[in-house]
Each structure stands twice: as C-alpha cells, then as structure tokens.
C-alpha cells in the first residue's frame, strides 16, 4: 500500500509539473529543484547536481532525463516511468489534438500557420544566440562551431551530422582537456550492473537492428520507430537540436510537408513540458494515434535505457578528463548544427516577406531583451501577425 501511494504521488506531482512547466529545459530544472529538492526533500542539492551533470553528459532531453532519474530514485523503474508519463502527457495530448485539428481542417495555408513558422524563426535564433554564448565562449570552440555550421550548410545530409558530432568529440578530447572542470562528488545512484549492462546492450542493439529491419520490411511502424529512436539516441543539446535532425529525416522522404513541420514546431513553443513531445505532433500528422504513440515512445526510449545503463558507471566516467573534453567539443558542434538548421529550413521557409521578417524581429526582441516566456511570445506573434496581415 505504501508503494502504491508513492507511485500515485510521483505521477500526480509530475503531471502538475507537466501542466505548469513553461520556459524550456533550464526553466524545467528550476521547477524540479523547487519541487523535489526544496519543497519535498526527495533528494539533496548535491544529489540533484549529480543528476543534472549526468543528464547533460547523455544525449536526449536533459530536463526529461532528470525527471525520470528522480522518479527512479523515488520509486525504482516504475517510478521513473510514472514520472515521465506525468511530465510529458499534457504536452503530448495538446500537440496530438493540434495535429488532428490541422489535418481535419486542412489548415496548411492558413494565415496563423504562417505566423507559427515565423515564431520558429524567432525562437530558434534566440536559442542559437544564447547557446552559442554558453557552449562556445572562446575562439577554439567558436572555430569548431563555424566549421560545423559550414559543413552542414554545404553537405546537408543526415550522415553529415553524425560525422560532425564524432569529429567534434575527437577534437574536444584532444584539445580541450585543460579547460575541463572535473570534481570528486560522490554519485548517489544504485542500480544493478547486470541490469545496466542489459539496458546498454538493448540501446546499442536497437540502434543497429532497427535500420536493418526498416530496410527489409519497409513498414510504416518500423520506419517511424527507427527514425525517432535513432534521433533520440544521438541528439545532444536538447529539444531545439532535434529540429534539423527530424526535418532532414521526415520532410525529404515525404512523410510530412515542410509547412506542417514548421507549424507544429512553432505550436510546440507555446505549451508546457519537454520540446521532445514535438514528436507526438509529427507522429499524429504522419499516421494518426498509432504514429503518435510510436514516435513518442521511440524518441524517449533511449533516455530510459541510457539512464539505467550509465548510472552505476557515472562516478568513474565523470573523473575522466577525456570524456568531459569530448563533450565540450560536441556541445560547440551542436550550436553549429543549429546555425545550419536556422538557415534551412527555418529561415528560408519562415521568412518570405517583409512582414514575416518584421514580426520575427518582434518575437526575437521579446525573447532576448524583454525576457518574455516562449509561450507568451507565441501568442503575441500570432495575434500581431494575423492583425497586420489584414492591412498589409
């Protein structure tokens, strides 16, 4: 009975956070700190800092991974699953309903769809600028950022992104060791190493097997699971970085139009919860409710497997300067990937007229200088764009 009440508590608290956590991953971490550390004392500040460090090291949505990890610490694997469901469910439902509405009403050419594409321009440019300041603060990392962006712009292929990330990790490990800040904090996580090895084996096995299954069986369910699982496995830097990877997998293959893709991305900025639930919108547009379930589970599954797999080894890994240095290189390259994605498809598809650019400038200014939350900026930009389009 005590275990059941604990599970219910984990789910209800995570669901409330899922409804109220606006502002992106950094804001999510602040909400978690207030709720789980300060208010409920489920873990100490030290343990919470350890969790953040671990989830920044892993690919995937950092804030969701922190929430999953806290759920696991509180209630084991079931607690982690319940924490994930609670935190992601509100945005999944909202985006799935939005996708259904767009499909049913055939709103691909509506004025407010154009407004949402303009929102995407403002939000991604804001993300690029701020991530660049944090992740490429010196000339060597700026050089890596620029080289990554140039490579992706000149060779805009999915495999190029993987090569860029791999090379950035090697360069970082070789040249950034002196600026890595390692510490000796003790990890506070306990998982059976057998379970961890199984999770890591499953992670690697799916990553290798799914493309083969997709090639031989050519089924929409396998194709969707392969695409979203693979992207969830390689994305460093959070939700905004998932945009170029998903766009280059889904749009050229004809699974979704570029207009609907960018409209959904703009709508995702206006809701609470993790940006990775953008996958729920895409899955719904592509193949209804089954597509939504497959896309959502597939893109988050790597996070579960990696957290379970890495926890017992984290204390040893974090002390290795080469690991931290490689991550510095990867982070700089991630910003370069964002720069390339900002030009195409976001800017080239979102900015077609002087009105588009003017309203995008308004959205960026509200984010950058007036520090308004993304959901509010989405509403303001859409309203202003629709009003101006009546007169211009």
TrEMBL record:
It comes from the Bacteria. NCBIfam families: 2A51. Belongs to the chromate ion transporter (CHR) (TC 2.A.51) family. PANTHER family: CHROMATE ION TRANSPORTER (EUROFUNG). Keywords: Cell membrane, Membrane, Transmembrane, Transmembrane helix. The chain crosses the membrane at residues 7-31, 80-103, 109-130, 142-175, 195-215, 227-246, 285-310, 322-343, 374-391. It is a multi-pass membrane protein. It is found in: Cell membrane. It holds the Pfam family Chromate_transp. This is Chromate transporter.
